[in-house]
Design brief:
The chain has 351 residues and is of the alpha/beta class. It has 12 helices and 10 strands. The protein has an 8-stranded parallel barrel, surrounded by 8 helices. A two-stranded antiparallel ribbon has the order 1-2. Helix 7 (191-202) runs parallel beside helix 8 (230-243), helix 8 (230-243) packs across helix 9 (256-269) and helix 11 (307-315) crosses helix 12. The longest helix is centred in the C-terminal third of the chain and has 19 residues, at 332-350. The protein is globular, with a radius of gyration of 19 Å.
């Protein structure tokens, strides 16, 4: 590994860029992301990946531990077939516990994902919400971001994921909190070091150097940005694979060209690491004209491709583990109606 420090990063990340460099500009101060420039110019050094490990994680890495086997799940069996379907739980449409019960009784994905206060708007604790959903006998994946939690808080969330038998945990750096409510960001770890921390905790080792018994563990997922140049994104993925990621979820994909870029990124990845890893491609339904300006401001490419056309492109993707469906609606009945529409389209193509 090669150590590289970038002192111009407002989030002070040890590994970057994060997902918040919209069109090359940092979401914090709108300056050009310093990480992007470096990785575009120095994309590899003698085959070594630029990865800075957090000092505390380097220390606990010296503690002997066994490699705990991941939990068996229906979701993972479908990922291996390239036919998995996950859906982002409609946290903005949920008003009470009855709404939660209504959703889980009417829709049947392999996995529910629970976002972590997207765009800085406070919703629910993803691990608490995932714990509640487990009572319904369903498979879950909470998102955990570094923006609101220090090392201690992240460790507690990960230990909770082990205790309540979550199937997957998605780890991401997180967006800048001032997008909604101004608050003090943390960013104690970046996404790569969060993945590293998760693998330690899931193997029964804590940052305090204490150990505990783990019989089976959740899978560890990382985020992928298909809107970055393949050279840059391949390095981000390589770091996360080295840290212990087993699966990737993309940011929203809205064009066939973005799906093609996923393939190009994995071709580029072979320069750094030889690994087979599945990808869940995140699709937004429906992609209406009024949502496209917001997507573009977030660095997400838009065009005239239909949902069905993008879906067909995903089906042809060698690394695809399936589709992660995101439906935007604050009205639960509308959300359920859109789910049924999208599910029929996805079932026709993937099943």
């Amino acid at each position: 590994m090669v150590e590289l420090r970038i002192f111009g990063c407002p989030k002070s990340l040890l590994n970057g860029p994060c997902g918040g460099a919209f069109n090359g500009k940092c979401e914090v101060n709108e300056n050009h992301c310093p990480w992007l420039g470096v990785l575009e110019r120095v994309h590899y050094l003698d085959g070594a990946v630029l990865f800075n490990e957090h000092p505390i994680l380097m220390e606990i890495g010296k503690i002997p531990s066994r490699d705990v086997k991941p939990k068996n799940s229906n979701f993972w069996s479908q990922v291996e077939k390239g036919r998995a379907l996950s859906v982002e739980f409609p946290i903005a449409a949920v008003k009470n516990e009855e709404d939660v019960a209504k959703i889980v009784s009417q829709i049947t994905p392999e996995l529910y994902t629970i976002p972590d206060n997207p765009l800085g708007y406070p919703h629910f604790s993803p691990t608490a919400f995932a714990t509640h959903l487990k009572h319904f006998g369903i498979e879950v994946m909470p998102h955990l971001t570094a923006k609101d939690r220090n090392l201690t808080a992240l460790t507690a969330e990960l230990k909770t994921a082990v205790l309540f038998n979550f199937e997957v945990v998605l780890l991401a750096t997180g967006d800048w909190p001032s997008l909604a409510l101004p608050s003090r960001p943390v960013f104690d770890l970046d996404s790569t070091n969060m993945i590293r921390l998760a693998r330690f905790v899931f193997n029964g080792v804590l940052p305090t150097k204490e150990t505990f018994e783990v019989k089976e563990r959740p899978r560890v997922a990382g985020a992928m940005n298909p809107h970055y140049k393949p050279r840059v994104e391949a390095q981000r993925i390589a770091r996360k694979l080295m840290a212990g990621a087993e699966l990737f979820f993309t940011q929203v994909v809205a064009t066939k060209e973005s799906v093609t870029r996923i393939k190009e990124t994995f071709i580029e990845l072979k320069k750094y690491i030889n690994a087979e890893v599945p990808v869940m491609v995140s699709l937004l339904y429906p992609i209406s004209d009024d949502i496209k300006p917001l997507l573009r401001r977030m660095g997400i490419q838009t065009g005239d491709d239909t949902f069905e056309e993008v879906l067909e492109e995903v089906k042809a993707l060698d690394v695809a583990g399936g589709v992660n469906l995101i439906i935007l609606s604050r009205n639960l009945d509308v959300w359920l109606s859109l789910w049924r529409e999208a599910y029929e389209k996805i079932k026709e193509v993937l099943r």
